[in-house]
């Protein structure tokens, strides 16, 4: 492991023996006080030794525990890079769910305490030991119940976080389909399940607290009762000595509930991480690396059988035979779902191999079908960790058709790219991916249909200048649905149902008159059908008008003059060029400065406290009612003495139970209110918020900060008030017997709070920095998950692991300094309180005999001994509460996001993207929006759905200004097939009809029209067939067909297609076109 967890734990352990002898010496100190034989230097020397010890073992324990967060994160990340099937939502939950610390090993003092009791009470101490063992025996069932509940809580939180991640990733499609409120209800339902388990857990914790808070009273009652029954005399000195010992036992016993809770969390979290680490990994031997000089082939597959599911009778790919010589261009084509992308995956080693051999000679570069873009600038995405060779870099930029795009940005290739390339068009992202792969200078290039995301002109240029130009001597395997790219291939693979049914050159396959001819024929038929259907439209050719050179174009219709062309359109590049001057796409995370505002406390403070003075009353009663010596007549009878003590002690425990339940309930209810407010604001936020806010920031608040609200803040506030009440009671006792102490106690208290005032600003800012630095870890984690296959293909696992380590270190630094600052404060508080204690003890010992009742003086010393811990507890709780309230502050930041609604721009600080657009489209007309990649086509569509709001002018549908109607009313009456097909975890039916508005027979009818009916019918679950996160168990083309099914079900009068058939083959494209004409041409 990277951090010295073992040595830190050892240091923590060695610190404990130095503290407990001092505490165990307190009973004998009381005996000396009673006998008046101790000289002042003895207690003073003991007091001086105290602050020189570690201020709190818990602080060292926290350091040791906190240090494990780095190794845990760095253990999970390499595992993700080897994972055979990493699910982003689940993996993210495993990486973020882990306890932050563990209680100190104070429970070793129990055996020593029994020895002290035996010295003072004789055989009566064994009754106390039996009672202590009985209390400790309660650990077993309580721990088991806590573990079961903690497992349920984590599962519920997993489900909520997976759904939250999915919703954030697919927010645009949810808004386009007007499904955001439906998924808001889903998240609230999942949160409700988590809340129910949390409430059960806090009830169990309250019961545990009641048992262990009542345990000192129970143990002391058994001990004193046994002494009475056995005739062991109880004097004030004996009772007070025993009380001091029982108070010493309070620390380990009172922390047992926390120990049980943290142990349960740690056990469940460790089991989850262990289970994840033990899952099936990618078989590194699935692909055999062959030295270049040993073979003329870059890729060889013999009798290959592959499947995404290891235990299956229907492999994904069967009987794969393939040999690719060095420098060959291999094209892979076939119907949707035929196994084209899977073939590339088996070459990469991403797909489990059931049989056969795969041999690869040379380095690989991979361009996935769905573009994977890292946050950063364009250059960083292209270099991908390699050094910058300017000459080669410029040549690649030119070959990948990125020159014009970069010229339009003020910062060129240093222009920032938002999360997942949010401010780039689909074509731009694919070209950046291609440039990344070319710059890698690999031997084998695997392109998974990258040309479908760019326009025809750019696609042709890319194929000519890149594949057939700069890569002319490289081996390239490219999946494509575009027939025009097939003749240039040295080898064409035709796939069907997971098999290579044909292979050869273009003309050879045409002469075979089998499946390939059908693919080429389907392409021609699709073009003819479009031309025949739209024969009235006149489409200018490339030599008549260039989309790259014209800023203005007109579209005319021969049959009527109602369709007026777009008079002027400026490229999105023209306005995005000012990003660096007017603002960043991804904004720096907001961080408050200064103290936690009163509004934050006022928004949260709801707890009621009580029962803190009762333990003091019970101890005061025992000290007052017990005789000073065995020869003194008792003030009250033993029966009354014992009964009142038990009543007061049990009253204390009952008050604690009531307080724990009340505080926990109010804390959960308050947390729930904050969660709902934040969730509503986030889901109603405009898309500009999601464009400028990395997902990790939102997830950080929805997971870590929300957990702090759920379980910590209410308890911290409760303990803060409880500690204040206790110390006020202690001061009350001391004021009766040693009021001169206040001559020094009051000014020292002022010094206490001056120290706290000096400490708080630093600790608060360190806590804020630590919270902020957690979000980049989650963001990097999510990005690594999304691009795991690309990271492995490029051999960049070590670089991403080191980047993760750096982010973990950035988070750990302010956290560690925060812990160190607390130790700084604790040491000074200990020095001050020790000074007060030494002065008080010296004063009491120096007073003449008979001046103070020894029993009451002994009680005063008892509480003076604990004044240090009580004062430190107050400062600790105040400071800790202040730090924890930062989570409330951070959640409130995302509870004040302006709701979406009222020139089109992506954010207020960015310039307009579309300007001076004038267009009238009559009903039942089909209008094509064309232009170069990045020209503003998708932005035009987003303005129609009010994903981005127009700054000026009007957009009317059926003479209704869309700015004057509700967003759900607008979007619910429009339909769209987006450029990036999106599916949600759940079922087939849930993805087609999430609102449950249509009967099953209608859903089956739509599936048949989308060419998906047979595939779904073959699954035993039919409409309840599983869809995994992001629809990864369906091909991209099939996902596009599901998106088609949604609009067919909805049957809106306005249908928008954003490159709807880019990921499907020509035959399927023709079927979709025919379906559109039948369903929407009526």
> What ranges have pLDDT less than 50 throughout 5 or more consecutive residues?
1-73, 98-106, 533-583, 606-634, 902-907
Number of strands: 18
Globular, elongated, flat, extended or rod-shaped: what is the shape? elongated
Classified in CATH, the superfamily of the largest domain is ABC transporter type 1, transmembrane domain
What count of structural domains?
Answer: 4
Q: Report the C-alpha radius of gyration, rounded.
A: 36 Å
Strands side by side in the biggest sheet:
6-9-10-4-11-12
CATH-level-2 architecture of the largest domain: Up-down Bundle
Helix share bin: 55-70%
Note the total helix count: 41
Which strand-content bin applies to the residues?
A: 5-15%
Q: Which fold does the CATH topology of the largest domain refer to?
A: ABC transporter transmembrane region fold
Can you put this structure into words, describing what you see?
It is a single chain. With 1082 residues, the chain is of the alpha/beta class. It folds into 4 domains: 75-279, ABC transporter type 1, transmembrane domain (ABC transporter transmembrane region fold), CATH 1.20.1560.10; 288-527, P-loop containing nucleotide triphosphate hydrolases (Rossmann fold, 3-Layer(aba) Sandwich); 593-625 and 639-910, Up-down Bundle (ABC transporter transmembrane region fold); 937-1080, Rossmann fold, CATH 3.40.50.300. Helices cover 59% and strands 7% of the residues. The protein contains 41 helices and 18 strands. The strands form 6 sheets. A 6-stranded mixed beta sheet has the order 6-9-10-4-11-12, sandwiched between helices. The chain is elongated and about 120 Å long. The two termini are 67 Å apart. 47% of the residues are buried. The model is unreliable at 1-73, 98-106, 533-583, 606-634 and 902-907 (pLDDT under 50). It is a multi-pass membrane protein. Residues 549-561 have a biased composition (Acidic residues). The chain crosses the membrane at residues 123-142, 228-249, 601-622, 642-669, 717-735, 741-760, 829-847.
